[in-house]
Amino acid sequence: MKFADRYQQFMKEQKEEVPVIRLSNLKAVLKNCEIKDMHPKDRNTEEDCDCPVCDRTFFPSILKDMSVVVNFFNKRAQELLYSHLASGFKKYILRLKRKLKLKASHENMIKEAQDLVGYATITAFAIQKILKKYDKVHCSKKGQRFKYQAQTMKLELLKSPWLLELMAFHINVSKNRDERKAIWFVDFSLHKDDEHRPLFLVNLPHSIELNLDLTCPICLDTVFDPVFLTCSHILCHMCACSVASVTIVEGLRAATSAKKCPICRKGGVFGGAVQLAELSMLLSRSMPKYWKGRLQRERQERIKQAKEFWESECRSFLE
Ligand SMILES: [Zn+2]
Ligand SMILES: [Zn+2]
Ligand SMILES: [Zn+2]
Known about the structure:
Largest sheet: 4 strands, antiparallel
Keywords: Metal-binding, Transferase, Ubl conjugation pathway, Zinc, Zinc-finger
Enzyme class: transferase
Protein name: RING-type E3 ubiquitin transferase
Number of helices: 12
Bound molecules: zinc ion
Pathway: Protein modification; protein ubiquitination
Helix content: 55-70%
Number of strands: 7
Strand content: 5-15%
Order of helices and strands: HHHHHHHHHEEEEEEHEHH
InterPro entries: BAH1 (IPR033326), SPX_dom (IPR004331), Znf_C3HC4_RING-type (IPR018957), Znf_RING (IPR001841), Znf_RING/FYVE/PHD (IPR013083), Znf_RING_CS (IPR017907)
Radius of gyration: 23 Å
């Protein structure tokens, strides 16, 4: 079966209508392209590949679809994860709101996480494929460039912190490996390399690997209470606060845009950082001894920072 048909079928099988990348519209644009029949030899420079007719419709259309899809995915993933992490009465209300029967919630949650991971990955492939097709038709690199632009606009699904959280969530709630296998050709797990450093391995179709090294570049240990910066790098919460020159009480939102990521040196990456609660839970379960020791050490530091923060607040109030 062709990819476009498989994509459509996957979306049809979803229990409710979900936003999609309208591949047929985009294909129709490329089909009517005027320069596609030009011989590649006649297109020596980048300007020869320029196609204002396609560009006017192709990129705005795919951008619109992508933002609808990414917003939908992020919102749904957050709702699901929030209902997992929420407790007591709040959890009950949330589940009622989501029309889930409490009895079947475990199976429902697993199914929903699987559907969302499948949805994100198959959509990411659909986007990659149509951008490649754009480049093939035009003999250009514009499609690839657009892909990198989308990453900086946080529209790349495979780089979404919520996809990582959903995968960690799925491992956390699955009772066995069989429950975990059933996602659209996606396999992921937590591993340790030869030097016992933890790695989050993600294998996608077409032998694409999205492996994440979970060693913090600041403390050089396994990320503790991890946060996902907007540049896609992961640090311990405390380490991120020290790099961003804020206390744990003020939080990363108080960081100025001048503070840079210690890995890629990009600025303004702390304000929109996402706390990876599911990954944190997964790591704490897989290395309980390390987690407990780190928790004890950090608790003292957190108390110290909180004390200093409130003392300075009191001083400035009295002055
Ligand atoms: Zn064209
Ligand atoms: Zn660290
Ligand atoms: Zn970075």
